[in-house]
Write a structure and sequence with these properties.
Blueprint: H1 14-30, H2 34-47, H3 54-70, H4 74-92, H5 97-110
Length: 111
């Protein structure tokens, strides 16, 4: 019997695939490879186009915004973070840790 929470390497659900790509992209960005991270995040966004997964899209937009900020591209970063905030606000509201975290990322750009 397979444990309920064991990692599945064969899962191809769009959310799982996108989450893995997001995690790998952020590791790349933290390793000083923001262009590769950006490409991977855009690939993940593309794979979600047909899936109705707004919160995963918000996560990817937040990560892409952080990568743009690393590349000193504040306009693109602001657009991604603002879009992410709109999605989160529409799905779960503004009184939660996720909204606050993304808003803090956006506010750091403005400073």
């Amino acid at each position: 019997m397979t444990p309920l929470f064991s990692p599945c390497t064969r899962c191809s659900h769009p959310a799982i695939t996108a989450a893995r790509q997001c995690k790998a992209a952020m590791a790349m960005a933290n390793d000083g490879r923001p262009q590769e991270a950006q490409a991977m995040l855009k690939t993940a966004m593309g794979s979600l186009r047909r899936a109705n997964l707004p919160m995963m899209k918000a996560k990817l937009l937040n990560s892409l915004g952080l990568v743009y900020a690393q590349q000193n591209r504040p306009l693109q970063a602001m657009r991604c973070l603002t879009s992410s905030l709109r999605i989160v606000a529409g799905q779960v509201g503004t009184d939660n840790w996720l909204y606050a975290r993304i808003a803090a990322n956006r506010d750091k750009l403005a400073a």
